[in-house]
Request: fold
Amino acid sequence: MELTFGIIGLLFLFADIRTFTSTFQQTFFGAPTTQLALMATAVFLTSFLGLFVAWRLGPRRALGASGAVFVTATFLCAASRNNWTDLALSVVGLAGGFWWLAFFHTSRTPDGPSPLARAFPLALAADVALRATFRSEAVVDLPWSVAVGIALVGALVFTAAGLIVIGVPRQWMTPGPRGLAGLLVVPCLILVCETGATNGAQAAIAAGLGLGPEPVRATQIGSLAIGIGIAAGALVLMRFPARGLASGIAVAAGAALLWLHLPYVSLAGGAILAGGAAAASVALLGAPLRAATSPRSVVLILSLGWLLFVGAAFGFYAFWAFLPAVLAATVLVVLGAAVAPAAMRLGPLIAIATAVVAIGGPLAAFIATPPPPAPEAARVTFRLMTYNIHQGYDAGQIPSLDVLVDTIAKEAPDVICLQEVVRGWMIDDQQDTLSFLAERLNMQYTFLPNIGDLYGVAILSRFPMEDVRRVHYGLEPGIKHQPRGVLIAKTGDLTVACTHLDELSDGTFVRQEQVRTIIREVAEATPLIVAGDLNATPADIEVRLLGEFGLDDLGAPAGHTTTGDDPPKRIDYVWGRGVVGAQAHTLALADAIKASDHRALIVNVTRQK
Reply:
């Protein structure tokens, strides 16, 4: 029962971290960086309140109370479909999860080691399998009845296991100094997993997969490689006890290979990193425990670890995929594992179960991914859509992948230009919006990452795509301007350029230079389409530059494209040369807000002979 209690609790904790980070960034995006850092840090400081909970309640009741807060908030968060409610519940769930993790590790029977060391690899395997099975869509974001059903079953099993666990007399126990050093970096290990070790999209794209033009399967391949790595790590631990130094070396080597961005090599690096992370979790959590008068040392060390987590995570995401932040977390994990004492082995049943789950879920997802139909022959007239999909969230900041698919499918576009495409960020529930949409719409894609490897713009098409060019705009000084670019591909016997210009209200000069870059890159192309979110109105200089270049504003008759501005604005465009546009339109506002914070812009395009 302790193992079950640990596995489900860890899965709930992973889910709460993603839910909090996604709702936090969606709610407060654009606020001053310092303010965001203080707010995020305040949430993770709730871990220190575990000292008070333990002091007031004792080993059994503290574990039971923290588990009750944890599971209740997590279940209610899964049932909620309101951003502010999700944010509040995820904060409560995180606090309860922090306490539960510390108390479950240190509130032990006199002769019992912490089951977290055995639960962690299996929880990693189950997490990878679940995300592969649901095509990277988080369980809490599935259709309401499915999400609530799965969360309810998990909550009931967690509660039943917890009642059995706290029914046994328990006492406070603590590891020695080396074990405490290992605990300090456990939160950083979770960040290393989120950003690479269990992130199939990251492993695939780092290896050159998932950029296109190609059919869907890149993320599934990445998840399968990671699953194989976790399985290998678990099976090794069935034969040999976890050695911190060996697992640290595997983490370091895997991370180095992953972030080198080499074909095949980085995919292997992802697998090595995953196996190293699984082994490191056993080494970090498997140190011998001894009797203690309180859980003070464990709570304090883990709380400091959570501050390291939020610092590294904030540094990575707030500074536009700042890789040194993740590498710093990786170094801490390597050092913590290196000093950890020799730990336990995984029993055959647990090791084999971990391997089966880690490989079985991604393999089933890979096999079940249908190959797309062969590309259609180019047509003189076809339907084109440009759509800012808001990272897969609706206008109320609620995940909306299924609604997005239905919304796009109703319009039946042949070519789609997408902006704000995320492919596995922790702060976006680790969902791969591009693979999800391409698979459900039966289209091939090409992708331009602008921020790190997992955020950018994309083109989907039913026609063959060739002559792909990925052009990055010049980087602006400071951090307030996002890195951006233009994705250019030939499809449907014309050139399509998809872009997303700078969003800052005072960024007109930046946008003007970005438009001039587009003009230079497509100067001789005809017929030509330039489409995307320009973050400017028709009267702005940057928009008028495209008209002066000789392009026609094909989407003008459609009207406004935003959903939340008062008055609404037109900032999404389809411009063309050598083509004629007809029946330009956008979505009705009532339908648009259920899918994104933009309205899709659709134009029927006819190539001129």
About this structure: The longest strand covers residues 381-388. The longest helix spans residues 50-79. The two ends are 72 Å apart (CA to CA). The chain has a mean pLDDT of 95.
